[in-house]
Amino acid sequence: MFAVEKKPDQVSVPQLLKAGFPPHLAAAWKEKSKQTPEKFLEWKKSLKGKEAALVSKVWKEQEISLFNNKQRFADKNPYQKNERNPENKKNSKTKETTSKPKEAPDTNDELFFGMSYQNLDVRYLPRKEKNHSSVFLGGRGKGQILILEKRDEEFSYGTNLTYRKFRFTSGSRYKPIPHFYFAKDPNFYSQLERTGSPLPQPITLSNFLGYRLLNNTKEFEFGIYHAAAFSSYPGLYFVSPNKSYSGVWSAGDNKSSLYINDSWNHKDWGSHRIQSESIYNKQESVGFVYLKSESPGSQFFLDATAYRDSPLLYGVVSPEEVRPQIPQSLGYTRMSFKHLIGSEFLSSVEGHQYENGRSGFFPLFFSDWGNLIYRYREYNESGNYHWNEIGRAGFYEWRKEKAVVSFGFESRENGGQWEGKLAIPFGTNNLLELSGIFREGQPKTRAWFENWTYATDFNINLTDREEIIKLKWVSPFISLNVSYSEKENDPNPILFINFQLLQKIEL
After folding, report:
1. Could you report how far apart the first and last alpha carbons of the chain are, in Å?
2. Is residue 498 part of a domain?
3. Which range marks the domain in which residue 21 is found?
4. Residue 354: helix, strand or coil by DSSP?
């Protein structure tokens, strides 16, 4: 029998995993259980689909109780005083004061420190663009956070201060909006940004002052900001509950940025997710949108992405690549039945180069141990070569949630390419990923390469490189990214290495 009135932090990780929790959900439960009951309840209500069902199941089996006997009779809004509570009647004179939100720490008080090192080995790049390193030291407690950093030869700070309904962030690390592109430091990025982490994306000097509106445990935030790297004019910002939607706008130059990360689950229509971020500017607009849909029972899948890359995003989306010369617009769609039968469509415009293609795939053999997939793909290029060619490929593939094993060979008229991907989640919030492509002969159209990125779960790009190898290992305290690529008949390969370390000490 389970214990009666057990608190969330009394449920162990092995118990959660035994109940069917994936590692990332178990880690999120343990992280949220360190926070206030109101924060834990808010997190529980934000879950959807399978995750919501698993949490509700353990909630009932373990007989979880967030509040003590007095708190059970409190109003549903944890920040508003309930007149039915006898404790509130004794303090009716302080009604105006106690009805305001009490700031709760996001996690236990802690110190944290770490470092990062990055090397981009390209022969023709200046030294100052090849190597970047940083060290940092910070701490947080009672809802406040401060960090001191040394990025290359420059010192910076970051602070996130909250008092009742107000928030003030200043410096080069913290901001109330979750944007990835916004005022980003082009020489640094954080792969350790996740729930409960004190390391969001590094930014250039920015200041935000906002008002937090709390309504039935949902928190809206809006205010003013200034970030010279984004706009020379001050502007307004807005953040929705759970940071699913946020935006910034500067009236002086009519420049804005929009962020979306939301999902919907319906028993009849399945689960759907959208991720998007964009910067709208008179000079040039950039951004991406990614859609993912899954039918009830995981029968049908849809992935669709579109983005517009440009020199403005150099060092933001793909720091291991050289600076793009001209903007590129690309769209990609993949539809499948149980990842076995499906089709793909791609279209790209890059200057005067136009490429598009389509493909279909189906299983030659399938089992619980993996599937043998045949793929037929058409490649079309106009602008440079006016070339069309057919690719025929055979693959072995095995997928289970975030775990993926895939490798195979595609034959083309003027050559071919080996493709492979290995993704292994292990432990709690650990992911090891290896992907690569090796091209043979002289294909006149570029390869479709599934790339890992920092702002979205999925991205596909076109590459004419003869060889690409990418390795990624991410955990709550360490991150390693290694990328190697080379062009045919080019003595200048590109090697990118990025290592990040975060250590936390609870007080």
Report:
1. 34
2. no
3. 8-66
4. strand
Estimate to the nearest angstrom the gap between the alpha carbon of 470 and the chain centroid. Answer: 18
pTM of structure: 0.73
Give me the sign of the Cα torsion angle 294, 298, 300, 304. Answer: positive
What is the chain's alpha carbon radius of gyration, rounded to the nearest angstrom? 25
Return the structure tokens found at 156: 């910076």
Of all helices (H) and strands (E), which one includes residue 22? Answer: none
* Residue 229 CA to its chain's centroid (Å): 22
Q: How far apart are CA 472 and CA 411, in angstroms?
A: 28
Overall domain count for the chain: 1
Residue 124 token pair: 């023709």
In-domain check, residue 195: no
3-state secondary structure of 102: coil
Name the amino acid, one letter, at 444.
Answer: K
Whether residue 35 lies inside any domain: the answer is: yes
The answer to whether 130 and 139 are in contact (CB under 8 A) is: no
DSSP annotation of 6: B
Q: Which of 132, 165, 177, 164 is nearest to 151 (CA)?
A: 132
- Tens of pLDDT along the chain (507 residues) come to 334 457 887 787 777 877 778 767 877 888 788 777 877 887 888 887 778 888 888 887 777 877 654 343 333 333 333 333 444 434 444 333 333 333 344 456 899 999 999 988 876 666 667 789 999 999 998 879 999 999 999 999 999 999 989 999 999 999 999 888 899 898 888 888 877 789 899 999 999 999 999 877 788 999 999 999 999 999 999 999 888 999 999 988 899 999 999 988 888 888 999 999 999 888 778 888 999 999 988 889 999 999 888 665 544 444 444 445 678 899 999 999 988 899 999 999 988 889 999 999 999 998 888 899 999 999 998 877 788 899 999 999 998 877 889 999 999 988 899 999 999 988 778 889 999 999 988 888 888 987 655 556 667 888 888 899 999 998 889 999 998 988 777 767 888 899 999 999 988
Instruction: Please indicate, yes or no, if residue 341 is contained in any of the structural domains.
Output: no
Specify whether the CB–CB gap between 32 and 8 falls below 8 A: yes
Q: Is 284 left (phi over 0), alpha (psi -120 to 50) or beta?
A: beta
Distances (CA, A) of 311 to 285, 286, 316, 323: 11, 10, 10, 6
> Residue 57 in contact with residue 19, Cβ under 8 Å?
yes
